[in-house]
Amino acid sequence: MAVIDKYISYRTYLVAFFIFLMAIAIAVKLTNIQWVDGDHYRELAKERTVKNFVIPANKGNIYSADGSLLATSIPNYAIRFDAVAPKTETFEKNVKLLSDSLGMILKKSSSTIQNELRRARANKNRYFLVAQKLSYTEYMKIKGLPLFNLGAYKGGIIIEQKTIREHPIGHIAERTIGYERKMPEGYSDGKGIEWAYSKYLNGKDGKILKQKIAKGQWKPIRDVNEVEPQDGYDVISTIDVYIQDIAHHALLKQLEEYEADHGCVVVMETKTGHIKAISNLGRATDGTYYETTNYAYAESHEPGSTFKLVDLMAILEDKVADTSTVYDSHGGVVIYSGRKVRDSHEGGYGKISLARGFEVSSNTVMVQAVYNNYKNNPTKFVNHINSYGLNRKLGLAFQGEGKPFIPQPSDKNWSNISLPWMAFGYGVSVTPLQTLTFYNAVANNGVMVKPQLVSEIKAWNKTIKKYDTEVMNPRICSPETLKKVRTVLVNVVKKGTGSKLYSKDFSMAGKTGTAQANYATNGGKDKHYVSSFVGYFPSDNPKYSCIVVVHKPNTSGNDYYGADVAGPVFKRIAQKIFTDTPSTNVIKKLDNPNPKQESSYNTYYVKMQKKQNSVPNVKGMSGMDAVALLENLGLKVKAVGVGKVKKQSIQAGQSIVKNSSILLELS
């Protein structure tokens, strides 16, 4: 018995000793947690229950040159309710007033809202959605309502803010305005002005401290932010909204009519290089057109006959031939190294001058003029092209510029047909914006200026950065060459390939172009046409230059040439700019007593205003076009709806009574 008791005593001591050791270990661990690792664990607990959230800063706005909003950041709010936070007495005292007020703001039944709030409280819902997609004004109204005006802890209000980007003018110039987005990998990417000038547009993000209240749910700890976000600067673009609208609809109309694959148009101010309009439209599978790629800037392709201006300028500058030099078109076919160069006109043009060959866009004449004079020294000809800047990128601030290609005689791929093929715009590759920049230099008295889409960075009314006109080449050719080239470009429209566009009341100068694309792919089965027109207006005192390029027009009607497809877009833009929206400068010139200083456009504008004494038919026109046209005629216009004009309250042909009202119903 004594042995058993002794055994039990040993076991008791052993257990007690083990418990004692455990107690010591626990005490040591607690001491270690409290004093040694205390800061670490307290920080860890805080991180899991309290966290800083980023409040994205409002981006700066993007404005057009005429002050219209192209892109703006709009704060978007959501209101949630922590139904557990308010005391019972506080909740019961305010819930009826809160429900009545919310009902008026949200256009909902007061009783429905009250039932939802009571149900949320009964279910201890700490993240009940009250309203979302609220404007700042709506958010401020709700924030000041009974109960919610007590704040997050006493009133249970939870405020969530997001910033969204909107384009007030819709999809017009959407690709040029661009976007910035966060990629899944964490880095930012984007296009257009939004991305190119993001360092100015993006402000500094703020921070707000939130506490975890449930699984995946967080609410602000305080009503104020830890760090207030700072808004970005505003970007002033060179785009003119009205000219942009004219260009967009003129291009769209032609693309739809010819069922083309895609196209672009750019309108540039001659002296400054400011791009007043740029439209890039591609065809979707359903046949509609939308902005998808900046073709004018990114698409480098064979230009075709618009490149012939390079030939003419180089030849005249080197004085190896003159505009009066006669060439034989040889029945419309000349052969180089076994390859035929053909004229589009069957049978050729007989014997004609170099100037006439350019005006009718004779491939055989222009190729002979280049080949005969530069075959022994092709570098001399190519150096002219390089001096015009066509062998290098324009280097604008935007991503994705198309890479030009001008063969150099030192290249290993240079062949016997390189020179003659270059002469009519094949075997070379340039972007539409490069071609326009070259033609704009001709319009600008030989001064080549860099295209520009942004003129200024501003913070409210303070200028942060101003972008002045950048001269790329102060003189692309001699005044003598320039004078001859400009005369020939005018004659292209008067009596050459662009004669369909000619108007005795309206002067334009330019060059048509029709190029075959993909002619060497799949045995020629994928061949299609690229129709273009590039030039400037008015021809005697150019204010704007413009290029229109249309890819893959429907060829069933055999009218896929530049004058038929692209030319009408150019003419419509030029006419509408100076008949619907005369600029301040034009109006000032109208008052100029010196007739020598007045451009032909001013005369044309005055003539059009005198002729138009009756209400025009605006049915089918875009709303923006119709409103501007009628307002310029002295009518007060009210438009209802969006899209094109479906009805007009004053019928076409009625006499115009100044300041009378006309109602337009848009589809």
Outline the structure in words.
- The protein is α+β, with helices and mostly antiparallel strands.
- 37% of the residues lie in helices and 23% in strands.
- The strands form eight sheets. Strands 2, 3, 4, 5, 10, 19 and 20 form a seven-stranded mixed sheet that branches. A six-stranded antiparallel sheet has the order 13-12-11-24-23-22, with helices on both faces.
- A hairpin with a 2-residue loop joins β15 and β16.
- α3 (88-106) runs antiparallel to α4 and α12 runs antiparallel to α18 (479-495).
- The radius of gyration is 36 Å and the shape is elongated.
Summary keywords:
single chain; 667 residues; alpha+beta; seven-stranded mixed beta sheet; six-stranded antiparallel beta sheet; 27 strands; elongated
